[in-house]
Amino acid sequence: MSERSTAEPVISATGLFTPPHSISNEELVESYNSYAENWNAAHADAIAAGDAEPKVASSTEFIEKASGIKARFVMEKDSVLDPQIMAPRWPERSNEELSVLAEIGVNAARQALERAGRAPQDVDAVLCACSNLQRPYPAMAVEIQDALGMGDGFGFDMNVACSSATFGIQTAADYIRAGHARSVLVVSPEITSGHLNWKDRDSHFIFGDVATAVLVEAADIAPSPHWQILGTRLKTVFSNNIRNNFGFLNRTAPETRDEDDKLFVQEGRKVFKEVVPMVSAIIADQMAELGLEGADMRRLWLHQANANMNRLIAHKVLGHEASGDESPTVLDRYANTSSAGSIIAFHEHSDDLEVGDTGLICSFGAGYSAGTVFVRKVS
Ligand code: CO8
To answer: Which CATH architecture has domain 228-378?
Structure first.
């Protein structure tokens, strides 16, 4: 290894905010099935005339087998499970109050700062990197900067869907290499429950809410131990297979009555088939470039969308079936939390690694997008 420079970026610490409510598959399916029954009863004539398709029941067995998801956390539970509503509900906040997305981001950020022994005033920049931004402006990142009490510095929002956090880590690392900043927070507050169509059988079980934070810093100010960033790689390839058409241009076509495509929609099977080889190839390429082999990889913190996808990708990387210790999952408790998934896995499953151990944080999702961050624990 070459001599380490002071502008070398490292991960100093991470933070995690977990929402107060959890929904089990059983609760979710009961709610969906009751909604579907009501819908079928209300549309009985159209169904009998062949003008409408009846809604088919969802099942807990399918959800767990197809995805590995057993439960998900949400910011609000009762309205999501109410068959008459099936969307989160809470009172609108005034502009003088901290917005809900900033609030959970600040919670995660404070924990990361505390774990690094860092004061907010020491941080130069905050990136709010996530799929589910609450509004276009002012940037959530600037609100988080203000709420943390960072003072000087800057912040901006970035959205690369499920890969937002890894794209954020590379951006932060580049600022440090270039000398533009020495301490950067990458905050990923994901309130996916607002953009999930809880009435869609194909996807109602997929997502959960959470917030994570990653503190990326120059090696010479980082606490001991920390995570050296060995290399990062970003890739995007356009695909319509995961899409959300919500946006301010929706009002240009008020005659459009299709609400469903203003929420999350995907062709899950196609995504599965196309993304697994794409991600496996990026990881293999970068491992070759870094001179790493499967046997060198102590742990993989993979994007948390689907347990079967992760099993295939981990097998390709390691050269054997991965154990739960080599490729930990948080899907069972958190479901898919978009950009935060691989960071939750890293946050919960990295303290036990030894100095010298090497691992990979990897994200993939809509765009398509994929990001890799190879790290090594150093003292
Ligand atoms: N209950 C029972 N049966 C079901 C259900 C259900 N809920 N849903 C579907 N089925 C049935 C289907 O009807 C089908 O039946 P049949 O064989 O009779 O036609 C059968 O199950 C199989 O359906 P699929 O082929 O769709 O099932 P899969 O095995 O492919 O599993 C998955 C579906 C779990 C969705 C899987 O394809 C998957 O996980 N794919 C990868 C998806 C992925 O990684 N997406 C990334 C998305 S996240 C992202 O990029 C950012 C998004 C931004 C956040 C947005 C927040 C809202």
So the answer is: 3-Layer(aba) Sandwich (3.40)
